[in-house]
Amino acid sequence: MLAAGDIEWIFRGTVIKPHSRRSVDICEDQLIVVDKKGYIAHSAPAGGAESAVVLDLVEKGEVAKDRFVELGADGWLLPGFVDTHTESRIDRDPNGLGKRVYARLVQRLLQNGTTAASVFGTISVEANLVLAQAFLDAGIRGQIGKVAMDQHSIPTYIETTSSSLSATRTFIERMRALDAASQPLVEPVITPRFVPTCSLELLRGLADLARETGARVQSHMCESEGMVAVCREMLGGKSDVEVLDELGLLHDRSLMAHCTHSSAPDLALLARTGTSIAHCPLSNIYFSAERQLPLREAWDAGVRVGLGSDISGGYRVGLDENMRWAVGVSRLREGRRAEVRVGGKEEKSKSLAISWKEAIYLATLGGAQALGLDRDARRVGTLDVGAAFDAQWIEVGGPASRVDWFDLEDEEGGEGRRVTTEEKVEKWWSNGSEVDRKAVWVQGRRVYSQ
User: What are the alphabetically sorted keywords of the record (predicted)?
Assistant: First the structure.
């Protein structure tokens, strides 16, 4: 157990723990200890022997009272949300307007419990560096992409092939100089906008750059009927999935947004290459309403999937609405499963619909897995020992909260029926808002509170 001087935070109360089985456990009366480096050093029932040693340190005053947080009967900790796909483009006046917009963006993300995000920026190196600095200043994790595109765009928003490759290399170098830590808070991402706006020469050059630098890759893929048709027309009948794979842009550091028109062979390819998907259900309702991501099939194929807001494709900065929409559209798919189910042997016992607990997994550990944040020393997305303490404290039932419940009294003087903690969590999942979020931490640092 840590010495008192090595303890940064102690939390007691309910903890929601996502796990790799794509669900969450709701654990009551837990004790979590966070060390000075921002990692979880202890996570166990508060009544255990080791937890008693920690609580004794608080009782003796060896750990400051303001470092001990009691989460309350109507409160809990859960990992921070990981937004796997969002966009923020400010081309004009990045050091003026850009700074103001990006500062507001990161604060909105934190207010909504987002502690990590993968972002499509703009084609401008300078504007993207301003964006990355806003993430650093706010203490939020960011995988920032300089968009690359050399064809089929408006004249004021396009690059040449050589200038795009050169600018992307410069961006990677300057991003890594901006945050040179061994476990950086912000990282550069190679970001071809999508296949129709990138020549094969540019895509090939970006793939070479990804291999050379080890940088992650993100793009849009098979998002809509129109995009699928245009790609096949441009590529001699091939799909964007096939071409991105042939050029070496699909691998275990790759994230593809949307993928709503994925076929069973596409999903098998993504699983084989280790490519992840950013599922953006709210945005897809607007831009590819004819079809939604075959989420259950993607999971069954072995593809890592996280949740994305895709602002401003979607209208909500946070992932709360996207969790709800993920469940909603999956239920619609189940209602039409004979028409929409993708490939494989029919398993009528396995619903295409997902549960609210699976949606929380998508927004937390699922997102961390999609961004590769679970694979190194950070282990983002969980609240287990050894993981970085990226977390949010929710407390429901306040005057402005939309979460209500009513315990039932026994008319004959018995205990009656009290609403359980799990029921409160589900009510928050259904109706919660920013009002219920008391604080947010990234790597053990409190970056937001109200």
Answer: Hydrolase, Metal-binding, Zinc
Domain chopping of the chain, boundaries: 1-80+381-450, 81-370
As a CATH number, domain 81-370 is 3.20.20.140
Phi-psi domain of 259 (left: phi exceeds 0; alpha: psi -120 through 50; beta: other): left
* Global pTM value: 0.97
Portion of the chain with pLDDT greater than 90, in percent: 89
Query: For residues 206 and 249, is the Cβ–Cβ distance under 8 A?
Result: yes
Angle at 253 between CA 251 and CA 255, to 5 degrees: 90
Q: Tell me: the pLDDT tens digits for 99-130?
A: 999 999 999 999 999 999 999 999 999 999 99
Rounded Cα–Cα distance for residues 193 and 120 (Å): 8
Structure tokens at 138: 């706010």
Residue 324 sits at the vertex; the CA angle it makes with 78 and 111, to the nearest 5 degrees, is 50
Q: How buried is residue 213: exposed, middle or buried, by Cβ count under 10 Å (0-12/13-18/19+)?
A: middle
Report the alpha-carbon angle 196-278-308, nearest 5: 110
User: Do 105 and 83 contact (CB within 8 A), yes or no?
Assistant: no
Report the distance separating Cα 429 and Cα 414, nearest Å: 30
Q: What is the pLDDT of residue 350?
A: 87
CA torsion sign for 324, 312, 257, 118 is negative
Q: Which architecture, in CATH terms, is 1-80+381-450?
A: Roll (2.30)
- Phi and psi angles of residue 134, each rounded to the nearest 5 degrees, phi first: -65, -40
